[in-house]
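Thread: Newbie trying to understand structure tokens

Hi all, I'm a second-year student working on a class project, and my supervisor (Dr. K.) asked me to get a predicted structure for one chain before our next meeting. I've only ever worked with sequences, so writing a 3D structure as a token string is new to me. If someone could post the tokens and maybe explain what I'm looking at, I'd be very grateful. Here's the chain:
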Amino acid sequence: MELVPDEVKIQILSYLPLSDLCQVALLSRYWQWLALDHSLWKYLPTNWRTTDDMLYKIIERHPYITHFDYDRDSKITEMGLSRIFVQCGRTLTHINLVCCDLLSSDLVSIMAEHCVSLSHLDVDSNPCVDDVTLCQLAACQNLLSLSVANCDRVTDGGLEMLICQRPLRKLNASYLLDVRLRTIENLVTFCSQSLHTLYLDGGNLRDDDVAKIGQLPALRLLEIQYCDEISDAGVVPLSQLSNLSALRLYRSFNLTSACVSELAVRLHSLVNLVLSDCSEVDDRGLMSIGRHCANLEDLVLTQSYCHTLTDVGLCAVLLGCSRLQHLVLKGLKGVRTFITLIPVLQKRRLKYLHLGGCQNIPVALLETVAAFCPDIQIYGHYANRVKRSDFVRDCLSCDPSDSTDHDSDYGCGCGLNTNYLSKV
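---
Reply by user tm_fold:
Sure, no problem. This is what the structure looks like when written as tokens:
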């Protein structure tokens, strides 16, 4: 270690949590000098042990903190928060105040006045955040990302005051029932070239409202909760978002295969796709995904008591989406044997397979696939990790060219004919 430059040692120490850095500092004066380097103390998390006194000592020694993460179980008071905003305000860029009951109008004023470099603010699930709070945050000239999910007192009026003055890049307005068409129109007017991430609650949105989101050309991630009243007419215009890489639609009861096919044909950059409760989507939609979404890495499909999605569509996805890493299927009653293709495609990137609620897939078949593909995390009907079965442990040594090796009477008994699968 003596030949290793100090810069390299500091880089190695940067991967340690702060608690371990404190232990390293006790080794010697030299290691204390390395462990207390300012570059290692830019991120300040808190936990249930953190008090105001501890916070004061840290920020006095390391005043150049850039990230502050508040823990609701900590013993920090409003005075402690105000002090870190004042002393580290010039360098703080990321502040996380999720479920912070201490947040008040006075504290927000202090943060807006002193945190001149603030660019990312998260105040989710905070009952104190309202439209007045957003008007105060408009004074933060460098604010680019704002998360106000589950803040019930936030309405279109407060978001309008903020959006008109600050062209946001990211907005999380999930679980906000009072955010409607007015906010979307303001985003289109003031943030059309900057906004790349948007989370919305679709409970009060209609097709015309969602269709306007298609006028945000820079958007790369779109997530809408509670799409109960949204149909193809509102979602199809989203195919104009050529840069969209992640689309997540929850409770999408009214979406059809025609809508999914239109999205698959035009959204060539799609990497992440979530369709929750897509009871009207059938194999035709999945075949379009397999044919056109070559870059898809994550696919989540859930259905409730529905058989419209079968092995045919999922086989098309496995064959067409060569970059698929995560596949989550929940409640698909029509799925039975598509996983027999996975051993043929095990050289691909698939890492995670979740089959919760897919009751018709035999457990023995899951165990066989798990034996052939040990690198893939497979979870079965009851969300339990599928393990290799004892009776297929010797299957990997079978001759793939001889089907009798996998026959229950003459071979290992796994019942999987790899020679047949290779032809498929």
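A couple of things are worth pointing out once you decode it. The radius of gyration is 26 Å. Confidence is low (pLDDT under 50) at residues 399-424. Feel free to ask follow-ups in this thread.
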